[in-house]
């Protein structure tokens, strides 16, 4: 029990030797891409690299051919639109007004008030790519910002064949266009589906019709058990 | 001599002419075969449109989405503790194993760690989920090849593992047992002895399958050299788990990643096979179940005592940040990319499932194979539909 509070601290101390490898990875990628790397972060045993949109394909190719990242993990997107009416906050109401979570700085997160996550971001949409090496066992998460009006990036299907299906999924779920993809067509949704379900402004109709019964999870307990919970926090 | 040669030449020309005629007659029209969505080899509702030329596949296109439930969208309107209920149902045969990476991701963001006993028990249940999952595969592969018996043995022996899961969690398939900071409950009395007995049964089952199925001549003839995936292609498509290891890629996240879980304390081996064919995939999984049984035995011996739940606030709010946690699930690499904005639920949760990548190789792999081998390949790649469609 007593070792719990120390656990995150111990992790921080052990982190540097691991980070050296990942820092080297980041340096190699930066050397390869030059000023195309617009943001990066090495934290919590992971690497994030944000690249310029027009160098997306180059970044993927550099990962595969120069950094020996032969394993394709996944490709997906994020919509950073802050739309409380469409998110969980609609379900459980606004968050309670205490911000105690802010002072226990996490070992891995470290993102203080950034609206667009690790390695930064300028636009609403971001593209995510995770690749790894089967030999060195290291992985990297690539990000790029996409234009809100015309989210478009170069397809990387010619670099990683596995990207084919993932780009199709991202295309239908977020409406991102992949230039050079051999056949962007629906993979999960029926052919005539309208809209892009994973965008934040796409309503989850089931919740519009009927409120989520699981709300009870965050309601205060009768008998003022709340103070104890706050004390524990 | 000359006459013979002339006669030979004449007959050769005649034979050629006949051949070409026969060819013309036998030239078949292409045929489109619709495999599924209810074929037993598809483990759910996967449809594969196969274009045939005679008995050979010209191209194949898997059609998924019949079971798409939109979990990535649903996680955005759930609190963190509620999400585990959903993700149990992604790979329904690997139930508990789905919960672990998500909980680990949340814990990583919050900067908390479960006590050792909870970590070890998590690993025990993780491995038992692997056994229950892969044992079904070991029997089911026989059914796809026309050997009915093994699957009954598989269902029978898998039940012992599921009974143990039920004794602890109350659920055979959807335990929903992992919590942020620990586990819901400790082991019931007498469970450890029962589990030891069960692991022996699992091992016996493996021996049985080895004798009954893997050593079988017909089984070998139907699987050896069928659906060969070279290592470079496998990693290009993102194949993971036993499918990658059967192609000779030496990866296993249980060994390669640094988890707070108990794997690093155990003595075990990563099995790979150089062939990359259907037989290799079966062989690797068989070894894995054995290895897994031995891991559980080791863990039951060395189970630390103490608390099973770290101190967490009653209302769980996960610190803002992004975390990617992946584990070696029964089907392959399963990971969650969790983006938190400091709220009660994930802002975005990308679920990376192994089966989606594993079957994305099918259009490439099925090209040129014969119809009965399509089923062998589907069975040996081993996917769960919920894991593709999520």
Question: Can you offer a commentary on this structure?
Answer:
The complex is a heterodimer of chains A (233) and B (390). Chain A is of the alpha/beta class and 233 residues long. Chain A has one domain: NADH:ubiquinone oxidoreductase Nqo5 subunit (Beta Polymerase, domain 2, 2-Layer Sandwich), CATH 3.30.460. Helix content of chain A is 29%, strand content 19%. Chain A is built from 6 helices and 7 strands, in the order αββαβαβββαβαα. Chain A has helices at residues 6-33, 56-65, 88-92, 163-174, 205-209, 226-232, and strands at 37-43, 46-51, 71-79, 125-132, 139-146, 152-154, 177-179. A 5-stranded mixed β-sheet of chain A has the order 1-2-5-4-3. Chain A has a two-stranded parallel ribbon with strand order 6-7. In chain A, a hairpin with a 2-residue loop joins strand 1 and strand 2 (46-51). The longest helix of chain A has 28 residues, at 6-33. Chain B is α+β, with helices and mostly antiparallel strands and 390 residues long. Chain B has one domain (72-354): Cytochrome-c3 Hydrogenase, chain B, CATH 1.10.645.10. Chain B contains 16 helices and 8 strands. In chain B, strand 4 and strand 5 (182-183) form a beta hairpin. Chains A and B meet through helix 1, strand 3, helix 3, helix 4 and helix 6 of A and helix 2, helix 4, helix 9, strand 6 and strand 7 of B.
List its traits.
heterodimer; A: 233 residues; alpha/beta; Beta Polymerase, domain 2; five-stranded mixed beta sheet; two-stranded parallel sheet; 6 helices; 7 strands; 19% strand; disordered C terminus; B: 390 residues; alpha+beta; Cytochrome-c3 Hydrogenase, chain B; globular
């Amino acid at each position: 029990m007593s070792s719990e509070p120390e656990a995150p601290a111990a992790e921080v101390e052990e982190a540097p030797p691991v980070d050296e490898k990942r820092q080297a990875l980041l340096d190699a990628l930066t050397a390869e891409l030059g000023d195309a790397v617009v943001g990066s972060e090495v934290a919590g045993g992971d690497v994030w690299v944000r690249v310029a949109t027009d160098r997306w394909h180059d970044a993927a190719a550099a990962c595969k051919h120069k950094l020996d990242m032969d394993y394709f993990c996944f490709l997906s997107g994020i919509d950073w639109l802050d739309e409380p009416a469409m998110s969980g906050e609609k379900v459980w109401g606004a968050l309670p007004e205490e911000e105690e979570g802010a002072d226990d700085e996490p070992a891995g997160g470290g993102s203080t008030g950034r609206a667009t996550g690790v390695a930064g971001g300028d636009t609403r949409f971001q593209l995510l790519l995770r690749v790894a090496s089967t030999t060195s066992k290291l992985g990297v998460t690539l990000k790029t910002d996409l234009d809100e009006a015309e989210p478009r990036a170069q397809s990387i299907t010619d670099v990683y064949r596995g990207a084919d299906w993932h780009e199709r999924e991202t295309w239908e779920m977020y409406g991102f266009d992949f230039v050079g993809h051999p056949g962007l067509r629906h993979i999960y949704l029926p052919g005539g589906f309208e809209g892009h379900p994973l965008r934040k402004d796409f309503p989850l109709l089931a919740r519009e019709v009927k409120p989520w019964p699981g709300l009870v999870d965050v309601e205060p307990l009768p008998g003022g058990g709340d103070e104890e919970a706050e004390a524990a926090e | 001599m000359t006459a013979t040669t002339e006669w030979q030449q004449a007959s050769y020309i005649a034979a050629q002419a006949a051949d070409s005629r026969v060819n013309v007659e036998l030239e078949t029209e292409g045929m489109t075969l619709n495999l599924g969505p209810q074929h037993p080899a598809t483990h759910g509702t996967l449809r594969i449109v196969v274009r045939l030329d005679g008995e050979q596949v010209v191209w194949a296109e898997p059609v998924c989405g019949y079971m798409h439930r939109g979990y990535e969208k649903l996680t955005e309107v759930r609190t963190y503790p509620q999400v585990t209920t959903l993700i149990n149902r992604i790979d329904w045969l690997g139930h508990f194993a789905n919960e672990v990476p998500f909980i680990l991701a949340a814990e990583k963001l919050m900067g908390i760690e479960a006590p050792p006993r909870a970590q070890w028990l998590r690993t025990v249940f993780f491995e038992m989920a692997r056994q229950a999952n892969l044992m079904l595969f070991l029997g089911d592969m026989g059914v796809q090849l026309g050997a009915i018996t093994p699957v009954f043995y598989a269902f029978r022996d898998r039940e012992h593992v599921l009974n143990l899961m039920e004794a602890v969690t109350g659920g055979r398939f959807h335990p929903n047992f992992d919590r942020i900071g620990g586990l819901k409950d400790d082991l019931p009395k007498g469970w450890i002895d029962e589990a030891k007995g069960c692991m022996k049964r699992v091992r016996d089952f493996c021996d049985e399958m080895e004798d009954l199925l893997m050593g079988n001549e017909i089984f070998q003839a139907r699987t050896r050299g069928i659906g060969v995936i070279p290592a470079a292609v496998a990693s290009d498509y993102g194949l993971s788990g036993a499918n990658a290891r059967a192609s000779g890629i030496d990866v296993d996240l249980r060994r390669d990643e640094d988890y707070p879980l108990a794997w690093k304390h155990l003595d075990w081996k990563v099995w790979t096979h150089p062939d990359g064919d259907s037989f290799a995939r079966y062989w690797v999984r068989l070894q894995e179940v054995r290895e897994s049984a031995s891991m559980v035995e080791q863990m039951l011996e060395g189970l630390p005592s103490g608390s099973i739940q770290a101190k967490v606030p009653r209302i769980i709010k996960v610190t803002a940040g992004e975390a990617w946690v992946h584990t070696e699930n029964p089907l392959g690499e399963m990971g969650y990319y969790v983006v938190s904005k400091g709220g009660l639920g994930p802002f975005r949760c990308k679920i990376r499932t192994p089966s989606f990548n594993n079957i994305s190789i099918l259009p490439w792999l099925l090209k040129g194979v014969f119809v009965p081998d399509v089923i062998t390949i589907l069975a040996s790649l081993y996917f769960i539909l919920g894991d593709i469609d999520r």
